[in-house]
Give the backbone structure.
Amino acid sequence: MAAINSLRELLVDELRDLHNAENQLIKALPKMAKAASHEELKEGFTEHLEQTREHVDRLEQCFKILGEKAKGKTCHAMEGLLVEGQEATTEEGPDAIRDAKLIGAAQRVEHYEIAAYGTARAFAETLGEDKIAKLLQETLDEEGETDKRLTALAETVNEEANAAGQTEKE
Ligand code: FE
Ligand code: FE
């Protein structure tokens, strides 16, 4: 692996990692939508799939500005997070329990993205790459909104999961 010798190269490296992470997510979100039972959760995953395509598009705009290629990195963190997401999709217990597990997996993904976009945006700001910083902030805002929606949805789903568990015990 070549050494990274400048903050600009580090930004490119982070953006490649994110580009790979978002593309992995594009493949996983339809499976998560399919596995979800709660209608709002299902819709949420489908809507986030559309947003995620825009996230890839914004990253590609960043690469264009930098005159760099998007490919070349595998995001191992997202691989791991999606193994756990996959585990949630195949959970065989009550529907609401599976939904609660799916929300937990999805929020882990969002928090990872929020951390990564925040890091990349800060690099872009330091480098005076204002257009890139703005593009990254737009995505960062959407990831934050998605996380908040999941938290709100969890309030209902967790109650349902709790009720479902109690019924099974009887
Ligand atoms: Fe995203
Ligand atoms: Fe996301």
